[in-house]
Amino acid sequence: MNTKLLAFGMLAASTFAAPAQAQVQRSPYGPPITLDQAKRVVAAAEAEARKNNWTVSIAVVDSGCNLVLLHRIDNSNLGGIAVSQDKANSACLYRASTRGAEQALAQGGLNIRLLALRGMVPLEAGIPIVVNGQQIGSIGVSGVQSNEDGLIAQAGADALK
Predict the structure, then answer these.
(1) I need a labelling partner for 65 at 20 to 30 A (CA). Which of 28, 76, 82, 93 fits?
(2) What contacts 5, CB < 8 A, 6 or more positions away?
(3) Angstrom distance (rounded) from CA 40 to CA 81
(4) Which segments of the chain are extended strands (E)?
(5) Phi-psi category of residue 24: left, alpha or beta, with phi > 0 → left and psi -120 to 50 → alpha
(6) Are 124 and 150 in contact (CB under 8 A)?
(7) Cα Rg for the chain, rounded, in angstroms?
(8) CA-to-CA distance for 1 and 4, rounded, in angstroms?
(9) Which residues pair with 137 in a beta bridge?
């Protein structure tokens, strides 16, 4: 891999994760989330969605960014299936919430370079799932406004704490 590209990716990932910080601590990748853990994550996320009468798709990937579980609530839009997976993958690849990327992109300027990062989804609701200080997977949610998707994803990510 080109070292300049790698350095750019690391710089951009740091930028979107915490624009105010020069150095960002990220949880190391851990063992992959199990199917039972993914089911608990999805159940908590679905409960948050149903509480608000929101129809969404929920994706959980493992620490290698492989799909473990996809759950689509009845009548949610079909586009949300791919977007939920993309959000989960983005959080997995960059080991950071996609909310930071959305906020950085909204500021404009040099932050537009985030769009050039492979697998980057600058929409809220991709969140790493961290257990015992290690990222075991990520959750992505899509179907309502991105801040609402984010509430659902956070409920799911918190299920294993």
Answers:
(1) 76
(2) none
(3) 19
(4) 57-62, 67-72, 126-131, 134-142
(5) beta
(6) yes
(7) 15
(8) 9
(9) 62, 129
> 141 has which bridge partners?
58
Residues 6 or more apart in contact with residue 95 via CB below 8 angstroms = 13, 26, 27, 29, 128, 135
Question: pTM, whole model, 2 decimals?
Answer: 0.87
* Mean pLDDT of successive 10-residue stretches along the chain, which has 161 residues: 41 47 76 98 98 98 98 98 98 97 96 96 98 98 98 98 91
Centroid of chain to Cα 102: 11
C-alpha to C-alpha distance for 125 and 97, rounded to whole angstroms: 7
Sheet with strand 134-142: strands edge to edge: 67-72, 57-62, 134-142, 126-131
Of residues 156, 121, 116, the one with CA closest to residue 138 = 156
Q: Sort 43 into a burial class: Cβ within 10 Å, 0-12 / 13-18 / 19+.
A: middle
CB neighbourhood size of 74 (10 A): 5
